[in-house]
Design a protein that fits this description.
Blueprint: H1 13-30, H2 33-45, E1 53-55, H3 57-63, E2 66-71, H4 81-94, E3 99-104, H5 108-120, E4 123-129, H6 130-135, H7 137-145, E5 149-153, H8 160-173, E6 178-180, H9 191-213, E7 221-225, H10 230-237, E8 245-251, H11 256-259, E9 261-265, E10 268-272, E11 294-295, H12 297-305, E12 308-313, H13 315-329, H14 335-349, E13 358-363, H15 371-377
Parallel strand pairs: 2-13, 3-4, 3-6, 4-5, 7-8, 7-13, 8-12
Antiparallel strand pairs: 1-2, 9-10, 10-11
The structure holds the ligand Cc1ncc(COP(=O)(O)O)c(/C=N/[C@@H](Cc2c[nH]c3ccccc23)C(=O)O)c1O.
Length: 378
């Protein structure tokens, strides 16, 4: 596969042809200055890029490290998902598709897909687990407000895995007029590579900002939360050729990279939580956007190479980190992003992060969607 032994296109025959078309169109578009210019303009004028690299002064003081936050929470719609959907929506329009299909768990990718569709005059159909529709109700309202059709998924655990399966199943019947807009670096080739390319704007900006901001030009540590792995893959891409330590942080109950085993799901050969019979076992996370029983193939590969390490934190550590960031820096993070911060807090406390070391952490999203969950914890 594209990522060493991982990746591939293990999809139903009808989707293999559709994926071949997506790959050809993406290669051509990505080499076309006109496409790149149109995307750059949307990222600037619509998504509000570049996002700041914010020094977390009070929290750094408390932790004894120099923590910088890459503010994807300030991108339009409130998370990094907008970076990917603007690229995929432009590509869908270029391919003559008139509808985007998407899966979502936290609702952030769904809101971003609905936003891009509205902006470019496309239809949007978003598949969302019924359980996630309850715990991320704010985003269901936002998607419908933006004109998207939200399809409740009632199979399996009624969360992200099932929504992704339903979205792929639906795409089989509408490949001629619809583009499947995958929300993370998962799925059949070319999606893990294409989504990382659309998300690398995070890492490329952060690299330039660190070069200007840090005495050494490069942080000692680069940290990001990992659901399917797109904000981490995009962030890591900006630092791959530097000595920075790369750390992906997963939910303890959804640790595909840290605890998964090789398998195939959603068209990709990667690492997944599975029982001895190879059945995918359900994930559990307080963060709907991390509640996925696997990880994208690029992370499986980076782990195998030892280029990145993958750690886990508990629901409680993440919730505590969210409240701590709110009260030291005035930022309410998404519960997903709070997982990355929870590890920084633990590692600064136990010496894993040396005193005075510089840490660049991607704050992948804002916490408005999680207020009801956090309210119970206050
Ligand atoms: C604010 C925020 N931060 C981090 C993440 C983790 O995603 P990633 O690791 O890709 O950076 C999400 C996921 N939100 C998506 C998650 C998602 C969509 N499709 C997926 C397929 C597989 C795995 C995850 C997703 C959602 O709308 O629920 C998120 O909403």
């Amino acid at each position: 596969g594209r990522f060493g032994e991982y990746g591939g296109r293990y999809a139903p025959e009808s989707l293999v042809e559709a994926c071949r078309e997506v790959e050809a169109a993406f290669r051509e578009a990505w080499a076309d200055p006109g496409f790149r210019g149109a995307l750059a303009e949307l990222l600037t004028l619509h998504a509000g890029r570049p996002t700041p690299l914010t020094p977390a002064r009070r929290l750094s003081q408390e932790l004894g490290v120099r923590l910088y936050l890459k503010r994807e929470d300030l991108a339009h719609t409130g998370s990094h998902k907008i970076n990917n959907v603007l690229g995929q929506a432009l590509l869908a329009a270029r391919m003559g598709r008139r509808r985007l299909i998407a899966e979502t768990g936290a609702g952030q990718h769904g809101v971003a897909a609905a936003t891009a569709a509205a902006l470019l005059g496309l239809e949007a159909t978003v598949f969302m687990g019924e359980r996630d529709m309850e715990r991320q109700a704010l985003n269901v309202f936002r998607m419908r407000m933006l004109g998207a059709e939200v399809v409740p998924v009632t199979t399996g655990s009624r969360t992200l895995k099932d929504a992704t399966s339903e979205a792929m199943r639906h795409w089989v019947g509408v490949t001629g007029d619809s583009h499947y807009c995958v929300g993370s670096v998962v799925g059949p080739d070319p999606y893990p590579w294409m989504v990382r390319e659309f998300q690398r704007v995070i890492g490329d900006e952060a690299r330039a900002q660190c070069a200007a901001e840090l005495r050494t030009g490069v942080p000692d540590h680069v940290v990001a939360c990992v659901g399917g792995g797109s904000n981490a893959a995009g962030t890591f891409a900006g630092f791959a050729d530097t000595p920075a330590r790369l750390t992906g942080v997963e939910a303890e109950g959804a640790a595909g990279a840290a605890r998964g085993r090789p398998g195939v799901l959603h068209g990709s050969h990667s690492l997944f939580l599975q029982d001895d019979d190879g059945q995918i076992t359900p994930a559990h996370s307080i963060a709907a956007g991390l509640d996925y029983p696997g990880v994208g193939p690029e992370h499986a590969h980076l782990r195998g190479l030892g280029r990145a390490r993958y750690v886990t934190v508990t629901d409680d550590e993440a919730a505590g980190a969210a409240i701590r960031l709110a009260r030291t820096e005035g930022i309410v993070p998404a519960l997903e992003s709070a997982h990355a911060l929870a590890w920084v807090i633990r590692a600064a406390g136990d010496g894993e992060l040396a005193a005075g070391s510089t840490v660049m952490m991607t704050l992948s999203g804002r916490g408005d969607k999680d207020i009801s969950t956090l309210k119970e914890l206050l």
